[in-house]
Structure formats: C-alpha cells, structure tokens
Specification:
The chain is of the alpha+beta class. It has 5 helices and 16 strands. It is 22% helix and 28% strand. Helix 1 runs parallel beside helix 2.
Length: 286
C-alpha cells in the first residue's frame, strides 16, 4: 500500500522589513500548496534578518508573543491552503524571557503546539545565548493527519540525541528550520560546512529510520552568506530533493512506509542497549 505525502520547504531570503518577510512566506506557502505540498516548512527566524550575528544588540523590538500577530497570519495561511504548516521559528517573548520557537498548525489553521529550541549556540557570528533562553520544555512530536512530525531548530541538528528522542517519541519526519551560513573570510578549516551539515542530518535519517527535512535561508546579511541547500532525505539517507543558493520551493514526495521497512530490516531499535547508555545523561558540560 502506498502512503506517500509531499513536503514543501520554503527556502527564502529575508529583508529588514518583517511585514515584507511574512508576506513572502505566505505567498511561497500558497505556491507550494498549489504545486502539491501537504506539509510546508519555513526557515528559522524568517520574519527578520539574522540578528544573532551581532553580539548583544537590542533586538527586543522584534520579539513577539505566541499566539500573536504573526501566528494569526500563519494560521490563516495554513487554513487557506489546506496544509500542515511548520512556522519556521519566531523570536518569542514570554514573561520577560525570550525563546527561539517553532509553531505548528494543522490544515484547519489550529495551533497544534510549539517547540522551543533546546540547544543554543554561542560562536562568532552565532551569538544566540545573548538572545535566547535554553528551553526546559523538552522535545515534542506533533500528530497530524499525515503522520507524526518532530521539529528541531538549527543547532539542534548537530545533536544525535535530539533526533533519536524524536524517533523514540514516534516521529515519522523531523523538520529542521535553519539559519546557517559562512561568515566572510572564514577559511572553513575543519572542512566544508555545508557538506558536514548535510551529512550529519542524513545520518540522523538513517540511524532513526525517518525522513529529515532541513530548511535553510539564503542570501547575504551583513558579513554572513547563508548558503541555502535545503533538502529532504528519505529514511535511508537518499537525498530526494535539494535547493541551491537561491530562493526556491523544494518539493519532495516521501514514502512513509519505508520507515517500517528500514527499521525491520536493520533493527536499530530492537538491538538498542539502553542499559549501557548511562554516560549520555551525565552532565559534563565544559
């Protein structure tokens, strides 16, 4: 029995005008739906330029509540286009604290829930600890008419524990709204950042027998070049569709039944040894 659905990834560039960015996101969501997408995902912090590239700038004017004006617009976009919508992520303010938060809507426009970014980077040009709290809410899997979807945000994508927990919670697909690029003049001495970014997430797909959909932004913002490369990997690491470094709607048809085939054939879950994994939960931050 075929159980195929179409994913639509909105790879877009951002301007300094939040309203313009939101209009573009809505317009591209409509186009993705017109082209057959049933689940659509936006990039990380899509309403603004990537402000964490600067240390301790005052970005409080960009923060918003959830629910709020932007989620109202996204709710309408989901309903009007009859799609499940992963709303990238927003700069959320609640109770005087700030979070990097993704909101998920069903096809009726109802908010299913929200996920706050767990892993917060703090590196040159990615000074996110100056802006966002680490979430203590844990990981969340959202149940939709098409299956269970997990949402992890950007830096979360480098942590195998996050993907594995989403899989253990029943996720069929993990979406990674992202804002990753290369600063001007960076020699990438470790190796090619985009290749590593793609490879690690394809590894999550294989190890967890689920679909991975990574949605990056594009364009030059200050000294940062966001490289795009948004892609969908199937449950055995095959890249089904991938964007370049320009604005694009990436569509991919996925076979949900492949998850069961890979899990039964490779038995990664049946042969786990949780009794020997205690080291994973030791708090050894350095």
């Amino acid at each position: 029995m075929k159980n195929n659905i179409v994913l639509g990834l909105i790879q877009m560039s951002m301007s300094s005008d939040p309203e313009e960015n939101i209009r573009k996101a809505v317009r591209m969501t409509h186009e993705a739906s017109e082209r057959g997408a049933q689940i659509v995902c936006l990039p990380e912090l899509f309403t603004a330029l990537y402000f964490p590239r600067e240390e301790k700038a005052d970005a409080s004017g960009l923060a918003e509540t959830i629910p709020g004006k932007t989620t109202d617009i996204l709710s309408k976009a989901a309903k009007d286009n009859n799609v499940v919508l992963v709303g990238g992520s927003l700069f959320e303010e609640e109770g005087g604290k700030y979070y990097n938060t993704s909101v998920v809507f069903d096809e009726s426009g109802k908010i299913i829930g929200k996920y706050r970014k767990m892993h917060i980077p703090h590196d040159p040009f990615f000074y996110e600890k100056d802006y966002f709290e680490e979430s203590s809410d844990g990981f969340i899997v959202f149940h939709t008419k098409y299956g269970a979807i997990g949402v992890l945000i950007c830096y979360d994508q480098w942590f195998p524990e996050a993907a594995r927990i989403n899989a253990l919670m029943g996720a069929d697909v993990i979406f990674y709204p992202t804002a990753i690029g290369v600063p001007e003049g960076n020699a990438q001495e470790e190796g090619n950042w985009q290749e590593a970014w793609t490879v690690v997430q394809r590894g999550h797909a294989v190890a967890n027998s689920l679909v991975v959909a990574a949605v990056n932004r594009v364009g030059k913002e200050g000294n940062m070049n966001f490289f795009g490369g948004s892609f969908v990997s199937d449950q055995f690491g095959k890249v089904l569709s991938q964007g370049g470094d320009k604005e694009k709607i990436i569509l991919a048809e996925i076979d949900m039944n492949l998850s069961k085939q890979v899990r039964e054939g490779w038995r990664f879950f049946q042969n786990r040894r949780p009794d020997s994994y205690g080291k994973l939960i030791e708090n050894d931050r350095k």
